[in-house]
Amino acid sequence: MPMKIVIVDDNKTNLMIVEKVLRKAGYNNLLLLPSAGELFQYLQLDAPQPCEVPVDLILMDMMMPEIDGMEACRTVLANERFSDLPIIFVTAMGDSNKMAEAMDAGALDYVMKPINKVELLARIRSVLRLKQEKDRRKANDRRIQNELDLARQVQRSMLSSPLQEKDVTISAVYRPTFELAGDFYAWYQISPNQYGVILLDMMGHGISSSLVGMYIYSALKDTITAIADPEKVVKELNARMLQLHSSDSLMNYYFTAIYFVLDTERQTIEYVNAGHPTGIAIVDDEVKHLSEGCCALGFFEEIEVMKGIIPYQQGARILLFTDGLSEWLEDKYEDAMDKLTHSLQAEDIADPAVLLHQLQPGWELVNPPKDDMCMVLISTTSSR
Q1: Between 218 and 348, where is the model more confident?
Q2: What angle do the packed helices 206-227 and 230-242 form, to 10 degrees?
Q3: Backbone phi and psi for residue 261, each to the nearest 5 degrees, phi listed first
């Protein structure tokens, strides 16, 4: 579709001159308007639900009655739909201060009267090239944003839904700082009495960490349900991560994780902490820390893994979280672990989103988190 040029001038002779120059140069998609008010009407600036208006460039006289070119320029560019619309002033004013003011108002260029057609056409070509490049970039940005939205939906759909059985409840709260994040969680029923739960935090942020995270996530269900044992699961995930490494890569990705198997029949929690923030368990009213394990996964081919085992008699509440949460809390509290432990002990809350709100009510507004935040809360009672 040919570029649409709108010419605004209260002098009919000037309109005819500019129109003639442009048509001879091949610009035939023109609209001639005698005032800024009619320009506003054409652009539907005051319409509650404006339609899309074709316009690629405005050539505007600076000196016009009622609404001059300067005010018109500011008004048009203040509208979000036309904030990038190029405007060229066509004026008889030679005052350098006025020309500077015109540029400050948002105009991209100006042409002096009497019009030099070579100069006018050169400036129009330059501005339209810039407009086309901006339009290409905006279209590309929209395409990328649509793809990111789809990827975010896919990522969120992969995360486990809250689980509530007779003696087990599991749920999570997830606050990514980017549309695509590197924190992932999952839980699977391994047998009638066993549940595997994992929380992992991929190095970095954004698209790259999310893609690597989804690669690992795709292997979680088969790995956890088939192997179950925390030591073997962690070693398998480490091997999977190493498959992404190559000798010519400038960056090798890694992730931290905490994984445990809850056995409601044996009433045990068997876990491995792979370089992850220490999980907190309130077991029969005693505080236990899930700290046994190994280094982060993806660094070494051979890793030594230490499994921790925590038995319980009456019940247990387990809180897993990523370092984005603990670092965020440390901006307000001296000891984030101590605050989390006391909150878990004091509040019989099954919803981690409620627990997060009670930890820092309204704090997100004044101190937004700098890293992805994720919290998983597990509660179990005795089945005996």
Answers
A1: 218
A2: 140
A3: -115, 120
pLDDT at residue 280 above 90? yes
Q: How far apart are CA 250 and CA 56, in angstroms?
A: 44
Rounded mean pLDDT of 54-76? Answer: 90
- C-alpha dihedral over 299, 300, 301, 304, to 10 degrees? -120
Q: Which CATH architecture has domain 5-148?
A: 3-Layer(aba) Sandwich (3.40)
pLDDT digits (tens, 9 = 90+) for 79-124: 999 988 999 998 877 666 777 777 888 888 888 888 889 999 999 9
Share of the chain above pLDDT 70, in %: 91
| pTM score, whole prediction | 0.71
Given a cut of 60, whether residue 274 has pLDDT beyond it is: yes
Q: Amino acid letter at 208? A: S
CA distances from 141 to 51, 134, 137, 144, 145 (A): 22, 10, 6, 5, 6
Q: Domain limits of the chain? A: 5-148, 159-381
> How many CB atoms lie under 10 A from the CB of residue 253?
21
Q: Which fold has domain 159-381?
A: Phosphatase 2c; domain 1 (3.60.40)
User: Between vectors from CA 233 to CA 213 and to CA 242, what angle results, nearest 5°?
Assistant: 50
Question: Would you say 360 and 166 are in contact if contact means Cβ atoms under 8 Å apart?
Answer: no
Q: Which two tokens stand for residue 97?
A: 């201060």
Confidence of residue 247 (pLDDT cuts 50, 70, 90): low
- As a whole number of angstroms, the distance between CA 126 and CA 3 comes to 13
pLDDT attached to residue 212: 84
Question: Taking residues 33-59, what's their average pLDDT?
Answer: 92
The CB density around residue 382, as the number of other CB atoms within 10 Å, is: 13
List the structure tokens of 203: 């190095």
The amino acid that residue 343 corresponds to is S
In 3D, which of 312, 311, 295 has the Cα closest to residue 303? 295
| Strand blocks (E) in the chain | 5-8, 30-33, 57-61, 87-91, 109-112, 163-164, 168-175, 183-191, 194-202, 255-263, 268-274, 279-283, 286-290, 293-294, 308-311, 315-321, 373-381
